[in-house]
Specification:
Elements (H helix, E strand, L loop, with lengths): L7 E4 L3 E4 L6 E6 L4 H16 L8 E6 L5 H15 L7 H8 L2 E5 L7 H10 L6 E6 L6 H10 L7 E5 L7 H12 L7 E3 L7 H11 L13 E9 L8 H5 L2 H19 L8 H14 L8 H4 E7 L1 E3 L2 E3 L2 H4 L10 E6 L11 E6 L6 E8 L17 E7 L3 E9 L8 E9 H4 L7 H11 L8 H21 L4 E4 L6 H8 L10
Parallel strand pairs: 3-4, 3-6, 4-5, 6-7, 7-8, 9-14, 10-19
Antiparallel strand pairs: 1-2, 9-15, 10-13, 11-12, 13-14, 15-16, 16-17, 17-18
Helix pairs in contact: 1-2, 1-14, 5-6, 6-15, 9-10, 9-15, 10-15
Length: 505
Amino acid sequence: MMPERDPQQSDEHEGSSTFVPVDPFEIVVFGATGDLARRKLLPSLYHRYCDGQIPDNSRIIGVSRTELTREAFVALVRDAYAEFEDAENWKPDCFEAFAEMLDYVALDVMSDGDDWARLDETLGPKSDLIRIFYLAMPPKLYVRIAEGLDKAGLAHAESRVVLEKPLGRDFASADAINAGVGRVFDENRIYRIDHYLGKETVQNLMVLRFGNILLEPLWNSRAIEHIEITVAETLGVNGRGAYYDASGALRDMVQNHLLQLLCLTTMEPPASIDADDLRTEKIKVLRALRPVTAANVAETTVRAQYTKGRIDGVPVDDYLADADTVESGTESFVAIRTEIENWRWAGVPIYMRSGKRMATRRSEIVIQFRPVPHSIFPGETNLDANKLVIRLQPDEAVTLWMEIKEPGAGGLRLKTLPLNLSYADNFAVRYPDAYERLLMDVVRGNLSLFMRRDEVEAAWHWVDGIIDAWAETQQRLSLYPAGEDGPDAARFMLEQHGDHWADAS
């Protein structure tokens, strides 16, 4: 074993933390030459190997239509790491050992016969290894791949399949995909992945709420004025124009990422952290969301598209140029005002927004508490209300804003200051990113952070209502300059209720 491969990492604050090895497995990555595999999946497996979590007798098999030798695929993986990852985490000796697990098969998933036979030959006789099929491919191919695996006899009893988002374009297409894949794989062997659920701070939501008596008694309409969920990107759609112009921000981000964050933020305490207990509470939230209809869509949603502007002082093109089209009604930004119609949250506005080419890259959840009912401090009549900010990216942190007395004589003056838990400041070692954690959960058979079929379909049912309402009312597409946090209409939507979006913090 190489000296660089260290299964035990030391942390100066916590002593040491051990990465528990998983059982040996083989993973077949469909779409292995694509962006997701090169940027996330293959580097994630490399990191888990170097940290001692993946046994040496595991196997990683790349699959795509591109004709490559095994050696060329190894070079592709090496080059991808250099392009997308931090050089200081690169360990050449560890990679050489990791590369021993790599193999490659050229396969056109729309073909029959020889292509699938080559994959069967590479996998060899049915083994007792856990076998994972990761479909880093367009969702329209999921059923075809599942049927190909079934026909070739490759999906044995220890096989699992991982499906990337977005699962379909609407309820009907999601239902068809779920049904088709479900004919080959039982529900407990289907892992519908949303990488946001693997982020440290997202998982910490449950610990904050259910591991601390301080917050949970206040986690309701009596103490919370409103909730905001923001997922903002500075990148445009360049390189993904064909996909994005047929999808838009609502399908691409709200139906999965934002609704999942909403569920974890607002769900009732589950009986345990068992997968079905967690997912049952999340689906209750989705079913309690106030429907968006043609009658209220104009007041509760904003859809917009970015125009030319500047990001970090650099001029950038508009959406049409980025998407390589001359005309488009696709939204690159969406903002929604909704409520959860249950006892805990009745009357609490929930604001969600997501967009491209915004002022800063950030993903965060803001819990805005109600102000104190009366100020006893002379000259301090409008005290700032407490605010809890859960930052998911780029700098993971949990920050609680509170009123504090400014030091000094000559009167009592208050100042709003943060109590800040920064992950970078408190955890010195590199910890696994979202894909690393979720991949290991697939190997372990832990479904807690993956979506159940009825959960996906409930999310689509709610989002379909918005899509239908936009079509029925022909809701206008607003515009916003690249480098700003969306259009004025998104600000007005909150201001008419006496609220405002939280500033980047």
